[in-house]
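Crash report, auto-generated. Payload:
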Amino acid sequence: MLLADDHDPMLDHTMSLLRAQFEVIGMVKDGRALVDEAQRLQPDVIVMDITMPILNGIAAARELRVSGSPAKLVFLTVHHESAFVRRCLAEGALGYVTKSRMITDLIPAIKEALSNRRFVSPPLQS
Amino acid sequence: MAISLRHLIFSGCGTPGSRAGRKYCETGSESAAFSSVVLFALVAVLLTPPSIAQKPVKEIRRVLILNIFEPLASPGVAALDQGIVAGLEKSPYQIELYSENLEAALFADEASQRQIRELYVRKYRDRKPDIIIAVGPEPLRFLVQSHNESFPDVPVIFCGSTEEMLGQLKLDSSFTGVWGVAQPEATLDVALRLRPSTKHVVVVGGVGIYDRMLESIARQSLKNFESKLDFTYLTDLAMPALLERLKHLPPNTIVYHTAITEDAAGSHFIDATQSVPMIASAANAPVFVVDDVDVRGGTVGGNVVGYGDDGIIAADLAVRVLNGEKPENIPIVKSASVYMFDWRALHRWGLKESDLPAGSIVLHREPTVWESYKRYIVGGLSLVVLEALLIAGLLWERARRRSIARELEVITDSLNKLTGRLIDAQEEERSHVAREIHDDYQQRVAVLAIELADLAENLGNSNGETTGRLYKLWNYASELGMDLHSLSHRLHSSTLESLGLVAGIETVCEEFSSQQEIKVKFDPKDVPSQVPGDVALCLFRIVQESLRNIKRHSGANEAEVLLEGVGENLHLSVSDRGRGFDPGTRSRESGIGIRSMEERLRALGGHLQIDSRPMGGTRIDAWLRIESPASVESHG
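Recovered output after restart:
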């Protein structure tokens, strides 16, 4: 499990939520580091934010897809616009969870992703 | 004038019913005398107003004009006669006019003169004139000598003579008249003033009766100058010899012409019209003269006897006598001589007009260019000045306009730059605030929500009420997070920034559709994937502003947004089928919105077109050039 978020408290919370069930092998704070670490660490799942310095999450997802990364992508973000959801899914993401619904939605989203199924936080499903 | 008079006379000869005319046409030897009668009869007839015929018949008075010369052969006599005829019009009587002449030039010898005089005495024996007007010295002398026998009790008015010409003869109570005044000395004074270098004076004259009279007057008058100047009298020469002499006069000479009606060879001349021009053109010196009629043919002029006025004065005296006044009670008038000059001769001899006595009459003055064309010059100059003023005014106005246009251009340019900077600053500030909200507050609210959710999860069902309240708080925090996100998004679109122009506009349209109950259809076509940030932001804002206007003003429930790449340009169109407006009278509020769109576009070199009419919907088209169009953005 690789985590990517430029916001430390959020990273801490995500870490504490996930570590009971998953092995977190790395945490990065920008899109460029994410791409590099994903290629180096080969995680099964990447939980990533959209708005990040240097390279945003969507651009990073595209690079990963283009490079043939097998990692499942779950976005954890404050963006709730459908355009983001569509774009992220188009870039190969399987999960799209809003941060405020992290506690309830993130673990189900990861699990769905590991099963190659999509999960989008319920308020955004349309 | 002479020609036309002659013509009149010959016409008169052929007039049927003119008994006198027939008679004198047949007797050729007396044709000259006859001509005079016919001339004056004609003049009298012509001068008589037709209405007189209808008035009560006036009493007839016979007036005999006795001339020294035939008027046709003497411009001086003609001038006097004309004055007399004109003056007699004032008479209350029907004037019966007779005109005779003594032929004192052509028949000057004593025998001829006696015959002519006897003829007239006989002629008028049975037709006694009521008054005789004697024109010239010879008729006067004749009447002074013989009127008691020839024309007893007939009053005589005289003119055309100077007092000196009467010689020793004395006028009796039957005579009154006007003396001409010849002042050769006054002429010489002027000549010396005009030509101070004068040393020689040549007096020319003829041998005729009148010529000798004038010569005598001149000799008398000029006596006082003989000590100062050298005088030569050329008065006994034949005309050719005289002219030859005049051609070779020494320098500093002036010529004083008296009269030449007959030269030493016995040739006769009309003085004014024949002798005078010959003398003037032959002489190599300026020629001064005695009579006003001689100021012609190249002569300079001088202090001259004015005959024209004397005729009128004589006629006035005649009218008074006809009205009953006695000649002896009417004082003799002395005519005023006049200074009269020919401008051309003055000019020829280099004589200055400024040296002439005050009140001089200057004939034939060539008007200066200024005098001739004063009106045209003044008019032309006025036009030129007016035109120049107009041109100056127009040039000034044009310069002013250009200067204003330049200033306006500078102002507009700086205004555009300022507008651009303001828009940039505003966008920057919005972006800054939005980022702050997103990066800090939204994250903190998200953490808060996560904490609340975590807490609620951990509590589970152990404390139902608390858990319920925690979930409520979580929901509240989640909504707060979304609201913050919306706010951040409005200030600065993260969609636009992260996903590009198409997604940005798409999101705006979706949000607008869901929030404002106006269905917005977005149609992107061939939009390049890489649109420069400022271009994208500009179009994005135009969409936002246009949709806001649709909501505010159109009343439409549907709108369309078209974004298409056309070559190197991006074309954005936002349209509705709402109530529209008259672009000429757009409200202040919407005007500001539209203006801000225009300014955004202009700052980037684009332009905006608004097509709207009342109840016809509104369509806003914006065009912007993209510097380097990249590959077409994929979407859908």
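Post-recovery validation: The interface with chain B takes residues 6-7, 9-10, 13, 17, 50-51, 56, 58, 78-84, 87, 98-104 of chain A (CB under 8 Å).
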